[in-house]
Amino acid sequence: MSSPIITLTSDFGSSGAYVSTLKGVVLGLNPKVALVDISHEIPPQNVAHGAFVLGSAYKYFPSDTVHVAVVDPGVGSSRRALLLLTEWGRFLAPDNGLLTYVLMDGRLKGFADDLLGPDKGEFLSPVTAPVPDGCSVFSLTRPEFWLQPVSDTFHGRDVFAPVAAHLSRGVTPERLGDPVDEVLRLNIWQPESRDGIVRGRIIFVDHFGNLVSNILSSDVPAGSVDMEIGGTRISGLSRFFAEGTGVMALIGSHGYLEIAKRDGSAADQLKAGVGEEVRVAKAGRAMRP
Amino acid sequence: MSSPIITLTSDFGSSGAYVSTLKGVVLGLNPKVALVDISHEIPPQNVAHGAFVLGSAYKYFPSDTVHVAVVDPGVGSSRRALLLLTEWGRFLAPDNGLLTYVLMDGRLKGFADDLLGPDKGEFLSPVTAPVPDGCSVFSLTRPEFWLQPVSDTFHGRDVFAPVAAHLSRGVTPERLGDPVDEVLRLNIWQPESRDGIVRGRIIFVDHFGNLVSNILSSDVPAGSVDMEIGGTRISGLSRFFAEGTGVMALIGSHGYLEIAKRDGSAADQLKAGVGEEVRVAKAGRAMRP
Amino acid sequence: MSSPIITLTSDFGSSGAYVSTLKGVVLGLNPKVALVDISHEIPPQNVAHGAFVLGSAYKYFPSDTVHVAVVDPGVGSSRRALLLLTEWGRFLAPDNGLLTYVLMDGRLKGFADDLLGPDKGEFLSPVTAPVPDGCSVFSLTRPEFWLQPVSDTFHGRDVFAPVAAHLSRGVTPERLGDPVDEVLRLNIWQPESRDGIVRGRIIFVDHFGNLVSNILSSDVPAGSVDMEIGGTRISGLSRFFAEGTGVMALIGSHGYLEIAKRDGSAADQLKAGVGEEVRVAKAGRAMRP
C-alpha cells in the first residue's frame, strides 16, 4: 500500500519554523505520510490568493489526498475549522473562504448559482453559502484529536496538522466533528456578457506576473477577438507565450483567459492586479468601460 | 519500521543547488531517510536567527530525528563541527551558537545559569559555556565518514550531510568524533525584573513581522498589564490576532510575549528588530527606559 | 528496493500551484517516487541560471535519479522536449540549453571542443552542438505518455511530469521518443590564457552574492596570484570565507574560482553579474582589460 499524501498550503513563509512544526506534528502521529508542499508563500492573510492556489492544485492529486490549507487571520476567534469531503480529495481549512474554488468545482452543484454580476456585493468579500450537493462539510469540534494545550494563535500546528494525521490513519469524519450546511465563500462574481462584450475580472496574479481572469475559454466569443484591460487593447489570442510579442492574451494552463507579457511581467507592465476588469469582444468592437 | 527523519536548516536559500546537494548526498548514503526542510531562508550568516528557528521546530519532531543545521560563516577555519545527543533529538551543527536554544531546553540543567542581566556582555555575541547535564556533545573528527575530498567552503555537503546519513543508519557517536565539555553559546540575557518592571528583548522577527521577545508568559505580572517598545505603549494583552486592533501584545505560539499588528507587520510599523527592549508592568505604571 | 528519486528544477516560484501540480501528476502515476526539489527560484526564463544549478546538483544524486528541469519560455512552440540518458542520471528538459552543464561533464567527449575564445559568438547564446559520445538523447514524441489534453503553456505538468513518472516505472526511452544527434547548447566560452593572463567570465551568482567564474582551479597559475574584476584588484587566494577580509577570491565548492565578500555580497559590492570578465595572473603582473 502506498503512503497517504497530505498537502500543505499556507501563508507561513519559509524563514521560520511554522511549516516544519506542522510537518513534525504530522510525522509524529503518522510516519508513513508523504508530505507535499503546495505553497507557503501565500501573501500574509491573503485568503483569496490561497483559495486560488489550492483550487489550482487539488485536481492533480490522487483522490484520497488530505489537503491542509491555513491562511487564518481569524485564528483563536469564533471562526470554525472545517473538514470538507469530496470524491476527489479531503480538505481541512478555516471557515473563511479558503475552500471557495474547491466548492466551485463543476462536479458540485448549487454553491455559486447566484454569482452573476457586480450587483452581488464587494468582489472577493466573504458571504454565506450553502454546502453544495455532492460533498459534505464538518466543523471540527473534538479536542481529543488536537495537540494539547491548544494555542489561540496557531491552529495549523494544534488543530489542522493533528486532525490531518488522524484522518490519514483512518479516523472517520464523524469522530472529528459535526456536520454543517453553510460555509463562507469569497464573493467571486462570474463574468457578465452584455451587448457582445464579456466583462470579467483578474482573480490571480502568478509568479511570472501573468494576470489570470475569471473568463473561461468557453466564455470567449468565437472568431477573432480583442481584449481590453486598464486602457490597453490587445488584438487576438496568442496560443503560447513565445508566439506573442509584448503584452498578449491567451488561454492559460488554469483554463482561464490570461494576460501575459513575453519574457516579462504583465502585472508590472500594466500596473494591474486582482480585481481589475478585463473585457473581451469580437475584433474591432468598441469597448467603453 | 518507519523511515528515520533528517531535518535541514540553513542559510543556503532556494535559488541555487546547495540544499539539494545535501539531499543528494544523504539519499545516496541512506535512501530510506525522510528529509524535512525546516528553513533554508535563514538570513545569510545570521546564526541567532537560525538558532531560534531550530529551537522552535525540534520539539515537534520524533525523538530519533537527526537535525542538521548549517549557518556557518566560519566554515574551513578551526571552528569545530558538533554532534549533540539529547533524549528528544540528535543535532549536527557548527560550534558557533547555532544550538543555543536547543541547549537551553528546560529539561537540561546548567547551561545558562549565569544569563541574567545586561552586565553579561553584548547581547547575542558568542561566549563559551559548559555542556549541560542530561546531554552529550561530540566534536566530529573522523574524516572516514565525510565526503572526500573535503572542501574548505561547504561542510554542509562534505561533513554534516554524510555524518547525518551515517547516524541515521546506526553509526555510533563514538565512531564519529570525540566528546567535548564546552561549546559556544549566544549570549541571550534572560529578562530582568526590577521595581515591578520586567525588561526583556526581541529575540526573533517572524515572517509576518511579529516581534518575539524573550519574556515568557510566566514572567508577565498577573492582572492587567501594559507593554512598552520603542516609545510605543500597548495596553493589555490580546488573546489572538483578530481580537486586537493595530499594534497589540499577546503570548504567541512560541510561548513568549509577542508584539504583533493586526493584518500587518509590527516590525515595519514600529521599525523594531532583534535586540530592541520590551518592558512590561502592571497597567498604568510609568516605565522609563 | 528503495524509491526512485525524481528531482525538479524550474522557474515556477513558490507563490503558486505550478510546482505542486507537477508533484501531484507524478505521484498519481507513481506513488513510490521520492520527490526532491533542486530549485524553483530560477529567475523567470533564465535558462543559463537553471542550467548551472542543475549542473551543480546532479553529480550528488544516485545514478538512477530522474532529473526534470523546466525553464521553458518556448513552451508550445516547435522547440523539442528532450530525454538525456547518461550513466550518472537521466534528464528531462526542453531543448534550449538547459542541459548544457550536464553535457559538458568531463566524462562525455566532443560536446564543447570548439568553445575556446570570445570569437565564438555571444556569450551564453544558444548554438547547435552534437550529442557527445557516452550518452544518448531522445526527442519526446509519444503523446500517449502525456497528460491529455496537452496545453500549449504548461508542458511541465502535461509532458515532463508524466514522462518522468513513466520513466521511473521502467518505461523504456525508445517508447517515449526518437533519438536525436544534435541539441542546443549555451555558448559558454572556456577561459583563455594569453601572455600569462587567464581571462574568464562570471557564469553564476549564488544566493550569498558570490560570483562564480568559469575558471577551474587547474586553470589558475601556480604560486601567488592576483585577480581583477571590474576594476577591483584582489591579492592572493583565500582558502575559506572567514580567512579573507572584504572582497576575496577562492576556489569555491563548485570547483571554480569565486569572488566572495566576507559576511556580505560580492555581487552587490562590485555591482558585477553574469558575463563580467575576471582576470588572473601571477602576483604583481599588470592586467589591462
Please characterize this protein's 3D structure:
3 copies of one chain form a homotrimer. Chain A is of the alpha+beta class and 289 residues long. Chain A is 17% helix and 33% strand. The first copy, chain A, contains 6 helices and 18 strands. In chain A, the strands form 3 sheets. In chain A, strands 10, 11, 12, 13, 14, 15, 16, 17 and 18 form a 9-stranded mixed sheet that branches. Chain A has a 7-stranded mixed sheet with strand order 2-1-3-5-4-7-8. Chain A has a two-stranded antiparallel sheet with strand order 6-9. In chain A, strand 11 (197-205) and strand 12 form a beta hairpin. In chain A, helix 1 packs parallel to helix 4 (155-168). Chains A and B meet through helix 1 of A and strand 2 and helix 2 of B.
Features of the shown structure:
homotrimer, 289 residues, alpha+beta
The greatest interface here is: A-C, 39 and 32 residues
Low-confidence stretches of chain A: none
Oligomeric organization of the protein chains? homotrimer
Structural class by helix and strand composition of chain A? alpha+beta
What is the tally of helical segments of chain A?
6
Main sheet properties of chain A: 9 strands, mixed
Beta-strand content bin of chain A: 25-35%
